[in-house]
Amino acid sequence: MATDIRIALDAMGGDHGPAVVLPAAAIALERRPDVRFLLYGDQKAIAPYLSADPRLAEKAEVFHTDVAVKMTDKPSQALRTGRRVSSMWQAIEAVKTGAADCVVSAGNTGALMAMAKFCLHTMAPIDRPAIAALWPTTRGESIVLDVGATIGGDEQHLVDLAVMGAAMARIVFDIDSPTVGLLNVGTEEIKGVEEVKAAGRILRDANLPNMRYQGFVEGDDLGRGAVDVFVTEGFTGNIALKTAEGTARQLGQYMRDAFSHSLMSRIGFLFARKALDALRERKAPRAHGGVFLGLDGVVIKAHGGADADSYAGAVELGYDMVRQELLAKIREMIAQASESRPAAASPVAET
Q: Cβ of 74: how many Cβ atoms within 10 Å?
């Protein structure tokens, strides 16, 4: 691995493009001096930010592109019009060719997943990638996956999610054996759809190293961080994610209404402002983006509306995934899980 971590940035992605991506890169560089940036996008839009920051300019290389994937583009449309020519595609392709160690984009999630899967492919034997999000809890953070990459899945898909999520947790939380739970409608073994129950039996019987399977967990366990890794398929995970984000906005509006109710409440707001700012930073998932797991490359999705600090957090997340060798850990744990699978029964010869 090169001394510097090389991060490809889709400078045109997200709601704000270079106005957020370049200041975020400067923040990340301040915190991670051993990083270099490959910037893909409109050179004219990028140039003023580099001119204003010589230190960032020294650690960055610009690759001009005329095409940017729109936030409203459908994945199929993005592939048709942006393949090979867009800032998003070229940033991903830099990982494929080895020019970059990871890619970060705040662009269209569906387009980013489609392009990343098409360009990088999934690592064997993973069939379907996942998006893992860092989820704020009362005890810190947990990882939740899948939050919307694919819909549905059999028991083997859920087992794969557990393995990949545990590998990520080993890096993010710096623990050897993270706890893992399957999101279900109850904690009893008899509850839930058959795929979830079957996945639970596989994980319990496998007793994998570097993972402590805790059984089924429920929706209210998310907020209190009952386990380090919550596993569910993408349909349920995305609903949980959007519900949490909506609830966070709802609570924020309640607080704004309460503190503007009277003169005394406005005075109270001045005393409580620092605590409320800290709460605002923690109240919703995806503050620092999500990780696309299962691909043969490190891809980080920053929130489309991220500010510079939040986007810088996504960049640093990518840095950590590379520096701590996420892909190697996933492959190691996949191999362990494969060894623990029961051998397929031999077909019975007809007589």
A: 13
Amino acid at 50: L
pLDDT-flagged residues of the chain (< 70): 1-2, 266, 268-288, 340-351
Considering only CA atoms, which of 26, 81, 56, 88 is closest in space to residue 304?
88
What's the CA gap between 130 and 275, in Å, rounded?
A: 34
Sort strands 102-105 and 130-137 into parallel, antiparallel or unpaired: unpaired
How many alpha carbons fall within 13 Å on the CB side of residue 197? 9
Per-residue model confidence as pLDDT tens digits over 109-130: 999 999 999 999 999 889 899 9
For the chain, count helices (H), then strands (E). 13, 11
Instruction: Classify each residue of 289-317 as buried b or exposed e, where b means 16 or more C-beta atoms within 10 Å of its C-beta.
Output: bbbbbbbbbbbbbbbbebebebbbbbbbb
Torsions phi, psi of 254, nearest 5? -60, -45
Q: Return the number of other C-beta atoms located less than 10 Å from residue 129's C-beta.
A: 25
CA pair distance 244, 196, nearest whole angstrom:
22
Q: How far apart are CA 143 and CA 141, in angstroms?
A: 7
Grouping H, G, I as helix, E, B as strand and the rest as coil, residue 198 is helix
Contact 103, 8 (CB under 8 A): yes
CA dihedral of residues 309, 237, 233, 319 (deg, nearest 10): 10
H helices present in 59-128, as ranges: 75-82, 87-97, 109-120
What pLDDT, on the 0 to 100 scale, is given for residue 346?
44
Which residues of the chain form beta strands (DSSP E)? 5-10, 35-41, 60-64, 102-105, 130-137, 140-145, 179-183, 212-217, 229-231, 290-293, 298-301
Asked if residue 320 lies in contact with residue 171, where contact means CB atoms within 8 angstroms, the answer is yes
Does the pTM exceed 0.90?
Answer: no
